[in-house]
């Protein structure tokens, strides 16, 4: 029988997907079966397109070339792969290795770090608090990195022994990359280099979180998803994917495109907050994760977010009579409450924010 954690504030006992996978069952529980229209094999959803991939941007190219390539990718896809990004390949391998080591620990070790919907920090197996909701086929580990007052050392696992040191080094390297990407994105918009960073509360104000996703083998991968279709609620996501097993799919032109990872690249995607700040010049895009019957899969997502209590709204430079503000201001604290209550649900939250702005006559917005 699969092991269940105490409720910890969840509406029902939490079952670890890894335990279900390792039980040897030939079928998945009904709780993980998606409606037909949401299944990877659904005839109503275009299956993954062959011979097409998200753009690849060489971060070592000239500043103008990189900015133009990033801007085009953010406008057309909302995704790109960053190569020659400056984070050592050996560190990428170490980060994957220590977190594979964590998920290989005995269940009683992992259960010590069970999370709750209050912060999501720790070892988790579900998003959203709807009782009886359809669940995703995946476990995860979520950590706050910045700002420092949110850091919870007791939530950082002690096993494997080098996990803490490696994760700290890795998250700092990726944070610096995020700051560089923010500047490149701003240049691509035609605004001052530091303008997006300023809208996020500056380098010291921005938030950084890490979520390690673990997708165990699944006996019926055509019936479920590792992660439901969603756009990321934060600012920007820098994803280190499994270098052996594909799984990420991006919606593009009405079809699901399976990302073919470039070795040692990061997959970067626009989150809802950058869509808001850029007045939808850069757009967050729905994506999902499919699972595999033969192979487990691990990925490490670093989320770069605005300061949580700072109202986020379109930059005045990107608003005009011809292109009025599409979004009303909202803090990231308020924004992510929706996601934490409801789990991943397409682009429903950012669309709701746009609808709210549309009801305000002659609305104007400013950012601090």
TrEMBL record:
Keywords, sorted A to Z: Iron, Jasmonic acid signaling pathway, Metal-binding, Oxidoreductase, Plant defense
Cofactor entry: Fe(2+); L-ascorbate
PROSITE patterns registered for this protein in UniProt: FE2OG_OXY (PS51471)
GO molecular function: jasmonic acid hydrolase; metal ion binding; oxidoreductase activity
Sequence ranges assigned to domain Fe2OG dioxygenase in this UniProt record: 205-306
InterPro entries: DIOX_N, IPNS-like_FE2OG_OXY, IPNS-like_sf, Oxoglu/Fe-dep_dioxygenase_dom, Plant_2OG-oxidoreductases
Biological processes per GO annotation: defense response; negative regulation of defense response to insect; regulation of defense response to fungus; regulation of jasmonic acid mediated signaling pathway
Pfam families: 2OG-FeII_Oxy, DIOX_N
Catalytic activity: jasmonate + 2-oxoglutarate + O2 = (1R,2R)-12-hydroxyjasmonate + succinate + CO2
The family this protein is said to belong to: Belongs to the iron/ascorbate-dependent oxidoreductase family.
Protein name: Fe2OG dioxygenase domain-containing protein
Organism name: Oryza glumipatula
